[in-house]
Specification:
By secondary structure, the chain is mainly α. It has helices at 2-10, 13-31, 43-51, 70-74, 85-111, 118-124, 126-133, 139-155, 159-173, 179-186, 190-214, 216-224, 235-240, 259-265, 281-300, 307-323, 333-343, 349-370, 376-380, 386-418. Helix content is 67%, strand content 0%. The protein is globular.
Amino acid sequence: MLKNAYLQFKNSAFAKYVLFYSIGMLLVSYNFRIHQTLSDWLFDDIFVSQTGLTYYIDFRPGYPPLGKIYLLFANVRSIIPSISQSDIILFYNLISACVAAYFLYLILRDTSARHKRLSLVFLALPTTLIAIIGYAHSDLFALLFFLGTIYFSTVKNNYFISGIMCALGTLTKIYPCILLPILLIILRKLEHRALLLASFTVTFLIVSFPFLMADPYMYGSTFIHHLSRGPCETIFSTMDGFIGHSGFPHPTYDATLYSWQFIATYEPSQLDHFVYLWKYPLLKVASTILSILFVLGFSFCAPKKSTQKRVILLSISAISFFAFSTFYNSTLELVLAPLIVLTTIDFQPLYTTLLLIGFEGVNIIHLTIWDQRLVHLWNTAVLGTYFPLLVITVARVLLYGVLFLSIALHSIRAGDDDG
């Protein structure tokens, strides 16, 4: 099976594009002296490296264990000194992006051949380029498993591999687990559901086993501490009056506490994203209800046999989760772009491209607000960050509205044609 997959990749036009793309990315990185280090991104990597603490035992990081796998790759330089930390991070991001794009290409090839070139467009998006050469992270690595789950569950109907991919994605960035309940609804046969759930559970437990044995409370805190977090950069956060980022506004050593100890230490506040006090609690309830209604609604509509329709409804169900979430940050565009492509595979490619341009334009503005090297542009313009955050939040809501309305109208027309 692996041999056949390799030969298909080798003989595809996608492989040639990826080769030139990879060479181009390496040249850009080296010519512009773009150097990535662990200290360029997450506060916890810096703190842990300086204090000698151990993740999931002494310290509660923001990501599950596979989300920190780039730390292992970065240590390769201790074996091969000629390879810099920046080189390792660049290759890690580049390979993850290319494999994720290849899964997208395979899905499109078997469901909408006219859209398969959009997998190449994904690699060319500014958000993707910045994610590859900009910093150390695991967003692209998680996306690889996310799209792999969709591919194996819809195109290949291999629910064993799909469950494994979904578990590995969840152990990287948590959000891929949203695909599990959607698939459990979409799949009609009980044995398929059982196989998917069993492979997910076993994979999750096997990878988690050493961390559970070391300190199950700290390991569990890695996942559940996100439940106390407030809204961020969405219409819900704007309506509740929270204008800010999702960064950690506490002394870094607070992450040495279990999540429940951390919550008990601080009084909830409307200024504290990590122990947030909602001004209008009904907004959180509305977000939850809307997410559930749309995710379940689209999931139950999935047909039994049409691979294309299952891909569309699986993708729009996942988009619904992000669209009605109280939380957003600019890296989620890496997930939304492929989902937008998959949701609109029975639209004209031009329309899909225009949607991508719209979402990407909003996200580029969003990135300038997040990046500490660029945020001064807004401050010098006497705008601060409030105004651009408000603009991109409203713009993104309008784009979601256009997407959902287009899906509804397209479905109505398709129903009339069938009638």
